[in-house]
Amino acid sequence: MWKVPLFNFVFDKKELDAVNKILHSGWLTMGEASKKFEELFSRFIGTKHAIAVSSGTTALHLANLALGIGDGDEVICPALTFVAGANSIIYTGARPVFSEITGLDDLNISPEDIGRKITSKTRAIEVMHYGGCPCDMESIEKIAKDHGLYIIEDCAHAPGAKYNGKRCGSIGDIGTFSFYSNKNMTTAEGGMITTDDDGFAEKARLMRSHGMTSQTLDRHKGRSFSYDVTELGFNYRIDEIRSAIGIVQLEKLEEANKKRRELDRAYREKLSSIKGVKLPFGKNPGTSAHHIMPVLLDKEINREEFMGYMKDKGIQTSIHYPAINRLDLYCNKLGYDNVSLPITEAVAQQEVTLPLYPSMGNKAVGYVCDSIAAYFTRRE
Ligand SMILES: Cc1ncc(COP(=O)(O)O)c(C=O)c1O
Predict the structure, then answer these.
(1) Alpha-helical runs (H) found in the chain
(2) Distance from the CA of 365 to the center of ligand 1, in angstroms?
(3) What mean pLDDT do residues 311-339 have?
(4) Which of ligand 1's atoms lies nearest the C-alpha of 179?
C-alpha cells in the first residue's frame, strides 16, 4: 500500500530456522531458549541480569513493582512518551508526575524540571530515551543520588544506544525494553528487564510468573514436584518461539542500528536546507539507536494537511506522541486537567515521524526529502 512505509522488519532463514527448531523441540513455553535469550541480552547490555517478559508494558510494570513502588508514591516521568510509561506506574497504585522535556532540540525529559517536580512522595524517575537518543543521564543520576530516588530507564527506543561508554538499560537501577514489531529488534510482542541488582531481578522473576517458587519447566525436568506462591504475581512470561526470534534479532541489532545511523545522517543532510522543518537531537551526547526519525514542523504548518500530502505521495508518517496529560483518560478521568507542559504540548502538536528502517535505502530517503521540499516550495 505504501511506497515508503513508516517501518519495516525483515526476517530471513535464520529466524525461520530458529522458530522451526522450537516447533519441533517438544517445548514451547518459557524454557531453555528464553534463558539463553536472557543471558545474551544481559551480556549485550552489560547488566548482571536480564528477565524476558511478554511486552515492554509488562516490563515497565514489573520494574516499578521490583523497586517497591506502590500506593501513595510518586514517579516522575515524561508526558511525551507512549502511554504505557505512565500507565505502568498507575498499575502499582502510584501516581505519575509529568516532567517537561528539555526543549525543541532535545525531546528527552528535562533534568531541571525533574528537580522542580520532586516532593516527599517521589520514589523514582522513569526516563525514556526518546527516539533512541540517551537522556542527560549524568544530571539525572545526580538528582537521583541527591534525593535518594531510583532511576527506571524505558529503553523501548534504545536497544544498543550508548552513553558515557555504557549501554542504555545499564545506567539506572533498572531498564526495560520492548520487542514490539516496530522496534529496532522484534519478537512480535515481547520485552526485557535489565538490572545489576539481585533483589530487583528476583522480584521481577517471581512476579513474572504468578509469584510461583518453581516453574513448569522445573517440574517437567524433574527438578521440582510442587510449588508455593509467595506474591500476587502475573502471567507476564515470554515463550520459546519469541525468545528464539529474539536471539537472532539481537545478533543483527548492531548492524541494523548502523544502517539506521547512516539513514539518519542522509536525512539530516537533505532536510537541513528546508525551512519549515526542524530536526531535534542534532547535538545530544552518546550514541543513539535511531529508533525513529522525528521532525518538527513550523507552527503555521497544518500537520494533518502535511501528513495527508505525504500519504498522497505514498509515504507513511506518524506522531510520537500525543501528550499523555492531554489524553482523555489522564485529562478528564485521572485529574491531570490542570497539568500544563507548554514545550511537551507544543511538540505534541508539531511533531511528525518520517519513515526509518534498516532496509530503507538512500533512494527512499531521497524520495521522502524531495517530497517534503516540494511541499514547502508549493507553499511559497
Ligand atoms: C516508549 C515506549 N515505552 C513502552 C512501550 C510499550 O511496549 P509494548 O508495546 O511492548 O508493551 C512502547 C511501545 O510501543 C514504547 O514505545
Answers:
(1) 13-23, 32-45, 56-66, 84-91, 111-117, 137-147, 198-208, 216-220, 240-271, 303-312, 328, 342-350, 362-379
(2) 26
(3) 98
(4) 10
